[in-house]
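Quick one: structure for this chain?
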Amino acid sequence: MTRIKPVAPKDAGLLIKVGYKFAGRRFGEVPEPFAVLANHPKLFVASARHEMAVQKGSKVLPANIRELAVYRTAWTVGCSWCVDFGSMLMRLDGLDIERLQQIGDYEDSPLYSEDERAAIAYADAMTATPTEVTDEQVADLERRFGRDGVVELTYQIALENQRSRMNSALGITDQGFNSGDACRVPWADQSVIEQAGPGA
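Got it. Here's what it folds into:
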């Protein structure tokens, strides 16, 4: 259960209802973060516009590089909703989601390319607190992806940090967008048990 109650369609204003209808058609159901954010209609609209603009503008990097970096960020923060939703998006894009089971061992796994490893390591360095990004790392990424590619990668990782941390803080957990649970955040079930307290 989320820490802030989602807005039911019957209680939503016209603009929110339109947003719900669009999201329901696109994803099969309304993503729970949308329904929680609907408690603040102006931010709901701002977020929807921003997400659409970012999606349209992020076309420099290959999809696998961008999506793996975003997925790793969500996995590292521990946002089970973002991991679930991100897995679905990768599957719909025709990307290999089976290898996500080895994301924890990406440095040694033969399933990841050198470019993918560099992007994942950058996601880790950006997501650390404080950040651990180095000049050498950014220079290497620029050689691989170009200056605009580094900016896009940085933006996407930063945005996923915002999404993942907001969803985690508000208690939004996986919604079942991705079939099965092979790609769940490995510590999600344990954290739910700990939050429930003794005797859970």
